[in-house]
Amino acid sequence: MSESAGQPMRRRAVKITCEVYKSLAPQAEAALAAMRVDSAQVHSRRAIVLRERALLPFLAPTTRLEEDPAEVYEIYVAPNQARGALRAWARALQLFTPGRGTIYAEEVETFDPEGPGSFPLQLAGPDAGDLPDETLSPLSLINCVVQRGRGNDIARCALETGTPVPSINFGVGTGVRDRLGLLRIAIPAEKEVVSLIVEAHEQQALFDALIDAGRLDQPGRGFIAACPILLGVPNTRAFRGPQRHRASMDQLIAAVDQLRAGTAWRRGSGAAGDGAGRTRRGYLRDLVNVTLRCSEGSSERVLATALRAGAGGATISRSKLFSPSGKATVAFPGRELVDLSLDPGQLDGLIRALGDGGAFDAPVACFVETKPLPMAFTYVAG
Asked: How far apart are CA 340 and CA 223, in angstroms?
């Protein structure tokens, strides 16, 4: 698609997402300022871990979920700066040590309005060759949208399979729900979005387990999707409780990762990727994930345009735009995020419709991010 009047600039970028516990938020923002990042986005989630607890010394311990407030920061950088920027940010926050947070990078395409709400890609950070190569293995990001109150069920399922720390944020669902007729009254609009990172070879098995845990093969239960991560460092300290040995399991696994120069050794005979135990489902394949980031109060207008352009359902959440360096002028700091999935053939039509509808102009200032969505699942009526 070529740029024209009312249409945005289209360019490739890498989005770096950093999730830390709220106590580390000032350090995360200070690191961005030191890296001279002009524009960043922040929103809140809750991080979920398992806590082991024994009511009496002679009783077997039980596990319960424990929640911690977390802050999620997102920046966009040029592709050739992604590795160096990620490492610099991770090192500043000591994220290579389990228990402090998660950081990862995704290849995306952006449609930038060049004005209020835009994300500059210039980052005065180190190049990839300036830092040694820590262990960065292939990863996958799984997002699962479920009814509010069911997010912990998804998180527990993931944790009990040994995944890194998942996190949950709130949203509002629309679109598909509104077309379910009488069934609509039984399906609340309030949603929870569970995000978790897994090793690439574990994606398929966990994907199926989460579909079962959330009963996503039933009408109105939710939506799940997985996409590749370019590189990243997950928070692997997902368990809290008394330590019975001098070295924790996290420390032992990290040591073997370093000795084996990767994580391929973790594959078990029943892991995803070897074909064992794989469930035959009607997966949705080769979609594109679209995130429309617009100024606060504009999401309904932007969503209406997207639905007319052929989008199915969407989830709306909130965030805040700010300038860590203090150099950029943030005209519309309050942001609303509209997340949806499309057939790739619908994308150009959506962008044109948004431009024709003035979504890229102030005060809406819509910023569009897209990325491939190789695999997704939701209930589809036969």
From this structure: 11
Residues with Cβ < 8 Å from 281, sequence gap 6 or more? 208, 211, 217, 377
Q: Is 46 in contact with 192 (CB distance < 8 Å)? A: no
- Asked if residue 188 has a cis previous peptide bond (ω within 30° of 0), the answer is no
Q: From CA 133, how far away is CA 21, in angstroms rounded?
A: 25
Q: What CATH number does domain 9-50+63-240+247-285 carry, 1.10.760.10, 3.20.20.70, 3.30.70.120, 3.40.50.1220?
A: 3.30.70.120
pTM: 0.84
Amino acid letter at 103? I
Higher pLDDT, 123 or 28: 28
Q: Per-domain residue ranges for the chain?
A: 9-50+63-240+247-285
User: What is the SS3 assignment for 215?
Assistant: coil
| 205: number of Cβ within 10 Å | 21
